[in-house]
User: What shape does this take?
Amino acid sequence: MSSQPQEQAMLLMALASLGKRLEGIEKRLDGKTPVLLVEEAAEGFKAYLKENARPNTRRSFDYLLAEFEKEFAGQNVPEIPPYRLQEFLGATWGKGKKSVVKQSLSKLKWFYSWCIKAVMVKGMPLFYNPCDLIEVKDDGPPDRPEFVPVEKMKAFLDTMVDPKHWLMTAILMTSGMRVSELLGDKRAEKPGLCKKDVSGRILALHNTKSGRRGEVAVIPVWVAERLSQFLQNLGPEDRIFTTGYTSYHGVVKSHGKRVGLDMKPHYMRKWIASLWNRMGEYGMTSFVLRHATTKANEATLVTALGARYVAPLSPKEAMEKQDEMLNFPRR
Assistant: This one.
């Protein structure tokens, strides 16, 4: 007998749910609510990115769109409330840095802006961007490692025993290359630096963060000589270094402890940029970082507009600066 009230309660709940769905359908038929299903929106936005965004940008959206489709499958994009999006961001990226959550929110906001335009093109009513109602607090300014004196960096490099590790470190320490540009990134399908990319002291970069073509890095003579010897038994298409990031990170970290330094691979890029900046060579700072905007010093900011007027250093000029001012001792 007790099962009958339970069945009646379940029936009432089902009818209430059906009533809400019918109400939602009625609103859409009245043209009050735009209709854009999650799957349709994701495919449309991917097509938009393919035509209008760089490969790196498209790859950066792959994971977000995949997780978004998984979380909100079958739902109407304009009807997903802000609090659900905030929960989605927190559950997916909340364990990381706040800066990562902010980047994901920025991407999601771009996606929703495209969705608003998509429904407008279809002649449907516009809807607000729910991402405007989501706030993510900053972590504060990022921690910057203290500048390591040149003598200590020389000792750090000179005490490396493995020739391959010495070469990897010397390239990063002098060229300003990103670790992913040197070693590659399997997740992003980046192969890393190959023998064919080396032309004397000039290294052609194909896996840059910006996605721009034609970016190069340069290395001093004393590094290029060692690299030339290392390349003798490699074919043109061979990767120069097959070491993964995690393995190399461990090498740098443990070797740094032995010489009294707290080192990570990416610190070397920051270090060489800081060194050129401290010597007043702001053109070299811009050259090694390859940023659209580069803060030259506390009083000078070379903006993207300024960069159009200030001619950048050529690879030849950058190599001349290295010859003049970056004389590490040879081993």
Notes: The chain has two domains: 11-133, 150-325.
